[in-house]
Amino acid sequence: MTLLRVEGLSKRFGGVVAARDVSFDLGPGEMLAIIGPNGAGKSTTFNMVGGQLRPDSGRVVLEGAEITGRPPRAVCRLGVGRTFQVAQTFLSMSVAQNVQMALIARAGRTRDLFAQADALYRDGALALLDRVGMRSEADRPIGELAYGDVKRVELAVALAASPRLLLMDEPTAGMAPRERAGLMQLTASIARERSIGVLFTEHDMDAVFAHADRILVLVRGEIIAAGTPEEVRADEQVKRVYLGTTGHRAALRARKATHG
Amino acid sequence: MDPGFLLVQSLSGLASASSLFVIASGLTLVFGVTRIVNFAHGSFYMLGAYIAVTVVPWLLELDRSPWLFFAGVLLSALAVGLLGVAMELLLLRRIYKVPELFQLLATFGVVLMVQDAVLWIWGPVDITGPRAPGLRHGVEILDQRFPAYELFLIFVGPAVLGLLWLLMHRTRFGILIRAATRDREMVGALGVNQALLFTATLFLGAFLAGLGGALQIPRVSASAQMDLSIITEVFVVTVIGGMGSVTGAFLAALLIGQLQAFGVLIFPKITLVLVFVLMAAVLVVKPWGLLGRPEPAAGRAALPEGILHPRRFGVVEGTIAMLAVATAFVLPLFADAYTLKVATEVLVLALAAFSLNFLVGNGGIVSFGHAAYFGLGAYAAGLLVTRLGVPMEPALVAAPLAGAFFAALFGFFVVRLSGIYLAMLTLAFAQIAYAVCFQWVEVTGGDNGVVGVWPSPWAASRQVYFYVVAVCAVAGIAAMRHVIYAPFGATLRAARDSEVRADAIGVDVRTHRWLGFTLAGAAAGLAGGLYAFSKGSMDPTLLGIPTSVDFLAMILLGGIQTVMGPVIGAAAFHSIKDVFMPLTDYWRFFLGASIIALVLIFPRGLGGAYGKLRGSRPVQHA
């Protein structure tokens, strides 16, 4: 069954075509990576799916319901969690409070004037933090955490919406190499256990080829190749325009490291 | 209608547009480069007029030639430009990095100081300026007489626009101004001497304000109220045109000039409301004005200036709070009438200040016009009592409702914006409410306000009324404090920290801010109603900018990052003002200087100092 169906998305900024007729499908529990050189239209495509940008044409359908052009808050309520290239968190709050806030929003209780916010959904928040390995940091101000840990908390915040689809824009950007592998591993295992479809963009080829089930290659707003990591790696055009020979070697290495 | 009359009306609209543009261009240039909205821009305008009415007659003594008149005007503008340089070197240079609320307050401190300086130098009487030699006659246009000087003014605006265009496109300085308006950090990274650029920009901005003021002297006499009346109009022009855009300011000035010229014919009483409708309409369609650009997003998330971790009362704080409440409730038993009066006012102001910090500290919504809701609450209660004979009790219910109603109405537009645009819009709305109370004489009593707003007989004694205020204020503060800890308060903090993240977890940020704005307006309205009954009267100053600034000074003094700071700030601020005001005629000067000192050396306020004393404890959980 298809979780997310994207049909013919196009977006222009003035004279620049940022995305042209982008179409793809994503199933539950599947990890789909969008790769491409800088300016290829990855973030544009991404923001059109997440509701931050309205496409000029095309459709975004989530489990049969059209969400094209709906604002992010509506997209979230329909079951889409999201992390950002530069982590977005509530800096004045503790780690647990960040997740509690997402749970409060999920329960539709943000207008509650009577309850004590600190006491709401604390157990739920701790369980989510436990899942991403941040349980021990629950009561620290989020501003004190290392960036890699902030990214993990952001993942927990995104999971608080019990999403069926996770959108992750460059999940490992700005992280140390060792942290990257850990975060991707974690994301993949959560996606599989909860049947969450994951759409992510990524510059780190190790992360992409190690964890993606399928890969889309975008160049100048158009999909030039799509398929399993093996197929994409073997694609001559992809090699030429994007991966280059070093990238190709990295892809092989990453594949070996995870699958032996 | 007579075509000649319409033409003349339109020409007079062009003349005021021209003057407005000259002043607004300076403000918008300074904002573009420094990102500071300079309240003192109106003071520069006023100083331009005062210097001109001093210098120009002196020059005309030598020879009554038009050249000397305009030499005097330019000389005055240059002098004001130098004052702008002084302000940049002494004050602005130290506050480029502080949050915008503090910047606005500091420049308002300058406004207060200049007001008293002007009174001290030129005295309280308005000074009429000389008319321009050679331009004193009228010109016949389609059988209508039109003053030649106004005709001349019409050409000044486009001339200034042209000169500014040449400056911006043909000189290195101008190109740097444009570059800095686009991306200040990049200009810094290119190795441009920023200090020099900023100083020069302030000179240019103040020069233009001074020029605008000096050119006005044949039309209006120099008076000590010019600064605040012009600054509101200029804010409206720059907001409609787009902050930082000179051409936008020109378009907006033209629009407003014509709107006022013809609005007077159709709706003589409500020209200001028309301007507000225009501004609201423009901002709904184009939130950054006609030709403005969105603020470039901050590269790295910074910790917001406001309530970070709303701490619960510990044993010490609980005891202090209990003692404070207990003291309040036994106070009438031994306090004299004067102390009781001050204590009543402190309680009222504490409620108003607390509601303001609910917006500023907790929601990151920097309202610069909170006095509007305070004043409208006072007027609602007072008018019900005096005009309709309603007793105190229902009037005190109407006060928060009125505050909430207008906060909801204005807030609908306000929450569409953020940062400095939001602050200026709240200010503009407050000025409109002020103007309505001021101008609608039949209902509001105009400048004199309304007297005879007395409590019901059972609450008529000062002691009993004190209890009424104490119960309402303590209950109001306790309720709002509770909301800060409730999910709604936390949601407002979340939206303040990261709007993008709040949106992504499913929060409708705009609606929540709107509700928060309405709630704060209700509390301020209640405070206003209580205030009206304690004074027995109300007048438009309750809604004025100085009152809004007083509230901001209170929360700043108390510490905007603390929950209870505003209460302490209100008590300290009001007591100090009460002690010092009778001692000197120049209390505004000292108030202004104190606000600047607060911003520069004590930005965390008394609450912050207390927090430091107690040591910053980690967040506590049940």
UniProtKB/TrEMBL annotation, chain A:
<dbReference type="InterPro" id="IPR003593">
    <property type="entry name" value="AAA+_ATPase"/>
</dbReference>
<keyword id="KW-0813">Transport</keyword>
<dbReference type="InterPro" id="IPR051120">
    <property type="entry name" value="ABC_AA/LPS_Transport"/>
</dbReference>
<dbReference type="GO" id="GO:0015192">
    <property type="term" value="F:L-phenylalanine transmembrane transporter activity"/>
</dbReference>
<dbReference type="GO" id="GO:1903806">
    <property type="term" value="P:L-isoleucine import across plasma membrane"/>
</dbReference>
<feature type="domain" description="ABC transporter">
    <location>
        <begin position="4"/>
        <end position="245"/>
    </location>
</feature>
<keyword id="KW-0067">ATP-binding</keyword>
<dbReference type="GO" id="GO:0015188">
    <property type="term" value="F:L-isoleucine transmembrane transporter activity"/>
</dbReference>
<dbReference type="GO" id="GO:1903805">
    <property type="term" value="P:L-valine import across plasma membrane"/>
</dbReference>
<dbReference type="Pfam" id="PF00005">
    <property type="entry name" value="ABC_tran"/>
</dbReference>
<protein>
    <submittedName>
        <fullName>ABC transporter ATP-binding protein</fullName>
    </submittedName>
</protein>
<dbReference type="GO" id="GO:0005886">
    <property type="term" value="C:plasma membrane"/>
</dbReference>
<dbReference type="GO" id="GO:0016887">
    <property type="term" value="F:ATP hydrolysis activity"/>
</dbReference>
<dbReference type="GO" id="GO:0005524">
    <property type="term" value="F:ATP binding"/>
</dbReference>
<dbReference type="GO" id="GO:0005304">
    <property type="term" value="F:L-valine transmembrane transporter activity"/>
</dbReference>
<dbReference type="Pfam" id="PF12399">
    <property type="entry name" value="BCA_ABC_TP_C"/>
</dbReference>
<keyword id="KW-0547">Nucleotide-binding</keyword>
<dbReference type="InterPro" id="IPR027417">
    <property type="entry name" value="P-loop_NTPase"/>
</dbReference>
<dbReference type="GO" id="GO:0015808">
    <property type="term" value="P:L-alanine transport"/>
</dbReference>
<dbReference type="GO" id="GO:0042941">
    <property type="term" value="P:D-alanine transmembrane transport"/>
</dbReference>
<dbReference type="InterPro" id="IPR032823">
    <property type="entry name" value="BCA_ABC_TP_C"/>
</dbReference>
<dbReference type="InterPro" id="IPR003439">
    <property type="entry name" value="ABC_transporter-like_ATP-bd"/>
</dbReference>
UniProtKB/TrEMBL annotation, chain B:
<feature type="transmembrane region" description="Helical">
    <location>
        <begin position="146"/>
        <end position="167"/>
    </location>
</feature>
<keyword id="KW-0812">Transmembrane</keyword>
<keyword id="KW-1133">Transmembrane helix</keyword>
<feature type="transmembrane region" description="Helical">
    <location>
        <begin position="66"/>
        <end position="92"/>
    </location>
</feature>
<feature type="transmembrane region" description="Helical">
    <location>
        <begin position="395"/>
        <end position="415"/>
    </location>
</feature>
<keyword id="KW-1003">Cell membrane</keyword>
<dbReference type="InterPro" id="IPR001851">
    <property type="entry name" value="ABC_transp_permease"/>
</dbReference>
<feature type="transmembrane region" description="Helical">
    <location>
        <begin position="104"/>
        <end position="123"/>
    </location>
</feature>
<feature type="transmembrane region" description="Helical">
    <location>
        <begin position="514"/>
        <end position="533"/>
    </location>
</feature>
<dbReference type="GO" id="GO:0015658">
    <property type="term" value="F:branched-chain amino acid transmembrane transporter activity"/>
</dbReference>
<dbReference type="Pfam" id="PF02653">
    <property type="entry name" value="BPD_transp_2"/>
</dbReference>
<feature type="transmembrane region" description="Helical">
    <location>
        <begin position="586"/>
        <end position="606"/>
    </location>
</feature>
<feature type="transmembrane region" description="Helical">
    <location>
        <begin position="553"/>
        <end position="574"/>
    </location>
</feature>
<protein>
    <submittedName>
        <fullName>ABC transporter permease</fullName>
    </submittedName>
</protein>
<feature type="transmembrane region" description="Helical">
    <location>
        <begin position="422"/>
        <end position="441"/>
    </location>
</feature>
<comment type="similarity">
    <text>Belongs to the binding-protein-dependent transport system permease family. LivHM subfamily.</text>
</comment>
<dbReference type="InterPro" id="IPR043428">
    <property type="entry name" value="LivM-like"/>
</dbReference>
<feature type="transmembrane region" description="Helical">
    <location>
        <begin position="262"/>
        <end position="285"/>
    </location>
</feature>
<keyword id="KW-0029">Amino-acid transport</keyword>
<feature type="transmembrane region" description="Helical">
    <location>
        <begin position="230"/>
        <end position="255"/>
    </location>
</feature>
<dbReference type="GO" id="GO:0005886">
    <property type="term" value="C:plasma membrane"/>
</dbReference>
<feature type="transmembrane region" description="Helical">
    <location>
        <begin position="464"/>
        <end position="484"/>
    </location>
</feature>
